[in-house]
């Protein structure tokens, strides 16, 4: 039988619904705000074969959420104009509620909702799945494939030491000092040499008419 839940119990039910997803997870919320806990749970689930889709009715994502979603290509974000519904589904559970993903960060909002299981509430669960499927078909993907491809290209692009220094807001000499400490470079006869360890981490020796330089993955010092 369906359960009637309020406030704190809804947050727990939503987190359990995410954790228990085996093949499919759909989060429908007019506004999307990803709390640290929600990001952690979605990030963990994104390492599994679970299909994760988020549907929203407000395109105004925070820059942090937009960037985070770009970095997690397994999570699909779709936009449906005039969406006001809030419903969360996995393979066997539906949570229909007033609780939005933007309410989680407040923590003290007054909410209510109904939790239905596919085995004990088959008709209610089936109707929720049908309506969420209709909403999904109406949605447009918010983060374009071009953005995702550009993000992946940025991740794989090798950076010169000056560009790496700029990205980290430190000096080139500080970058070189760290590369030496990590054993990725070594000094030999007044010159820097790329070590095997540095090469295994993705470092490249670049030879040109201007001399010798090195390029590195963007996260080499992380």
In short:
The protein has 222 residues and is α+β, with helices and mostly antiparallel strands. The protein has eight helices and 13 strands. The protein has an eight-stranded mixed sheet, sandwiched between helices.
Task: Explain the overall architecture.
There is one protein chain. This protein has about 220 residues and is an alpha+beta fold. Helix content is about 40%, strand content about 25%. The strands form three sheets. It has an eight-stranded mixed sheet, sandwiched between helices. It has a three-stranded antiparallel sheet with strand order 9-13-12. α6 (about 160-170) crosses α7 (about 170-180). The longest helix is centred in the middle third of the chain and has 17 residues, at about 120-140.
Layout of helices and strands:
Blueprint: E1 3-6, H1 7-20, E2 24-28, H2 36-46, E3 51-56, H3 63-71, E4 75-79, E5 87-90, E6 93-97, E7 112-117, H4 122-138, E8 140-141, H5 145-156, E9 158-160, H6 161-168, H7 172-182, E10 185-188, E11 191-194, H8 196-200, E12 204-208, E13 211-217
Parallel strand pairs: 2-3, 3-4
Antiparallel strand pairs: 1-7, 2-5, 4-8, 5-6, 6-7, 9-13, 10-11, 12-13
Shape: elongated
What's the total count of β strands?
A: 13
From the N-terminal CA to the C-terminal CA, the straight-line distance is 50 Å
Assess the beta-strand content as a share of residues: 25-35%
Tally of separate helices: 8
Helix content: 25-40%
What does the radius of gyration come to? Answer: 24 Å
CATH H-level homologous superfamily name of the largest domain: Endonuclease Chain A
Mean pLDDT equals: 87
CATH topology of the largest domain: Endonuclease, Chain A
CATH class of the largest domain: Alpha Beta
Low-confidence stretches: 148-153
**CATH architecture of the largest domain, please?**
2-Layer Sandwich
Order of helices and strands: EHEHEHEEEEHEHEHHEEHEE
User: Main beta sheet, described?
Assistant: 8 strands, mixed
Number of domains: 2
User: Order of strands in the sheet with the most strands?
Assistant: 1-7-6-5-2-3-4-8
